[in-house]
Amino acid sequence: MQDKLTLMTPGPTPVPEAVLKVMGCHPIGHRSREFEAIIQEISGQLRWLHQTSNDVLIITGSGTAAMEAAIVNTLKSKDRILCGDNGKFGERWVELARAYGLEVEVIRSPWGQPLDSEAFRVVLEADTEKLIKAVILTHSETSTGVINDLKSISKHVNSHGVALSIVDCVTSMGVVNVPIDVWGIDVVCSGSQKGYMMPPGLAFIAMSPRAWQYQENSTLPKFYFNLSFYRKTSIKNSSPFTPAINLYFALKEALTIMRQEGLESIFKRHDENSRAIQAAVKAMGLSLYACDGYRSPSVTAIQTIDFEAELLLSLMRNKLDILLANGQDHLKGRIFRIGHLGFVSNRDILTIVASMESVLHTIRPGKVVLGRGLAAAINELSSRTKD
């Protein structure tokens, strides 16, 4: 049926109708008082979402734009950095840092496994000359469904005393608890098409006072991504360049919806939905790719075992109008991923589980008991509702 697509990818994610509607409004002048009032309101809401009293700046671009801005605004050529890599987006940090001539030491974990926080501690404590200028990692690794122990790693970085912490929170901001000020994180990057419940197009970067000190001495080339421009104009509730005006309308509406729900309720909803998906997957006889205890509330990666992921994805899309995600790189065809972040409710979870169960019944005849996965999801959601 036309216009019936259900989007359950790790991004883009579903968008509330109220957010879509405001995007259809006529643009206004980005130097007008009306737009200044919108920026002022958004700025306060972003600090609330990030749990910080510091700057949260907006760049028209993707989450990767925020990542690049983080690098070029805090570091110098040939600076030594420590970079965590346990998936596609950890790899992106490494590639990005090397593109700017940084000396990158990589702490790797196998895909599907979390980064070892102790490995960070050992390297940082051994750096008695304080040569490491930044520790960079991805919080929620979208490619594998793993969430890394950001709290512990941040603690080790803070103990180092010199290195900045720079974190990709693209699929964790607005999904799980990331108390930036409490954990002492210096730079946090995120994007609009994930937990913010918006279309793609805006990137966000939160900067601590220490990060701004590094910014003053950074020497890597930058112009559009020069955050000092954004900081100066944000004080005046403006922007240095022409912004995506209608996406600001959407952001204002989305943040209002999130504020009404409240942070704790947002975190609880994502946790419940992810656990329901995980319970259903196990009941259907499939295996979760991410290891136990480190599964992201944003996305669930599922191993395909005896069938190709493309077959399931094709049937879900063509027969049921449900879009899921394939694996990336060497995991393509070996796993598929269900995004359950942002504007996703219990009803969506039950719909996806029932639909996936019917498709698996077709492609794995005799190996799937109809209703078992749905019952597991219902039981998980019901037990948490009682709690």
TrEMBL record:
One of its GO terms (molecular function) is alanine-glyoxylate transaminase activity. The keyword Metal-binding does not apply. The modification N6-(pyridoxal phosphate)lysine is found at residue 194. SUPFAM superfamilies: PLP-dependent transferases. Keywords: Plastid, Pyridoxal phosphate. Substrate binds at residue 337. It is an enzyme of class 2 (transferase). PROSITE patterns: AA_TRANSFER_CLASS_5 (PS00595). It holds the Pfam family Aminotran_5. The keyword Plastid applies. Its cofactor is pyridoxal 5'-phosphate. One of its GO terms (biological process) is glycine biosynthetic process, by transamination of glyoxylate. Belongs to the class-V pyridoxal-phosphate-dependent aminotransferase family. This is alanine--glyoxylate transaminase. It comes from Paulinella micropora. The gene is MYN1_Chr_372.
